[in-house]
Predict the 3D structure of the following.
Amino acid sequence: MMEERVEDSEFTYWTGDDGILRLRFVPGTDLNLEVVKRCVGIGLEIFRERPQPLLVHFDEIRGLSREARSFGSTAEPGMPSPTAVGIVVRSPIARVVGAMFIALMKKQPYPARVFPSEETAAAWLKTVERNSEKD
């Protein structure tokens, strides 16, 4: 699979050769409502075209606003979504944000977990993808 990129001033989406969509935020990004709306909007376009696993790098963000958390927890039924989400967290603030994100996603129809490295997250996402293909 060819790598595709969607770049924004605050984040970048790209699909690697392994078929996993990745999302990385610019170091120091504050995840406020405006940034999250743009990020989710682009994600919806991508998942509408092709549902796929998503690996999110939360390791260099500065914070997540209350408004952004509320927006992120209001997904509507039938909306395009990833098949699974792996969140990479390496710093204490990223662990907190990752845990909040996982708590918000409990209502979502796909599995989500936090990992200490991209390698472990990608391996889990590949396993989830293989298992879902068997069903």
Summary: The two ends are 24 Å apart (CA to CA).
